């Protein structure tokens, strides 16, 4: 895993972030990683090709919040998402980690061991879930 901090967004990172947020918000979200000291964005690769990214916000209490996580469709199911979460937890010595997600990704977090709580319909017709994992 490698930290991303270049001012110009790599096209592959842009594509990955578009899976984790809306296409319109990619540049805005990327800028938050570049400008905010408590946000970090990392990429993962295979044979020199970027295939995944994870963005996290770290709070003083060493609690991490996954803001974005994405793996190229052809690489999904290979364990890359889980290994990125393990990397973040170790790299930042986190006490806990959480994420908010939709029903498409909730099973991924449940399988990893996160506690899942429904937040109800945060947007019309869209149920959101809070996924939390205590590490210490």
Q: Give the strand tally.
A: 7
Strand line-up in the sheet with most strands: 1-2-3-4-5-7-6
The helical percent reads 25-40%
Order of helices and strands: EHHEEEHEHEE
Straight-line distance between termini: 23 Å
| Average of the residue pLDDT scores | 94
Q: How many H/I helical runs?
A: 4
Strand-pairing-aware structural class? alpha+beta
Radius of gyration: 14 Å
- Net shape: globular
Largest sheet: 7 strands, mixed
* Oligomeric state of the chains in view: single chain
Question: In a nutshell, what does this entry contain?
Answer:
With 136 residues, the chain is α+β, with helices and mostly antiparallel strands.
Protein model, in words:
The chain has a 7-stranded mixed sheet with strand order 1-2-3-4-5-7-6, with helices on both faces. The protein is an alpha+beta fold and 136 residues long. The chain is built from 4 helices and 7 strands; from the N terminus they run βααβββαβαββ.
């Amino acid at each position: 895993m490698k930290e991303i901090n270049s001012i110009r967004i790599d096209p592959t990172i842009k594509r990955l972030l578009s899976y984790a947020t809306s296409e319109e918000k990619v540049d805005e979200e990327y800028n938050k990683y570049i400008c905010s000291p408590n946000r970090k964005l990392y990429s993962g690769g295979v044979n020199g090709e970027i295939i995944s990214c994870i963005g996290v916000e770290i709070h003083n209490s060493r609690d991490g919040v996954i803001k974005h996580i994405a793996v190229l469709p052809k690489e999904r199911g290979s364990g890359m998402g889980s290994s990125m979460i393990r990397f973040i937890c170790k790299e930042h010595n986190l006490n806990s980690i959480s994420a908010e997600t939709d029903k498409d990704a909730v099973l991924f977090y449940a399988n990893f061991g996160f506690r899942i709580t429904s937040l109800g319909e945060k947007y019309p017709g869209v149920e959101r879930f809070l996924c939390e994992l205590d590490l210490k």
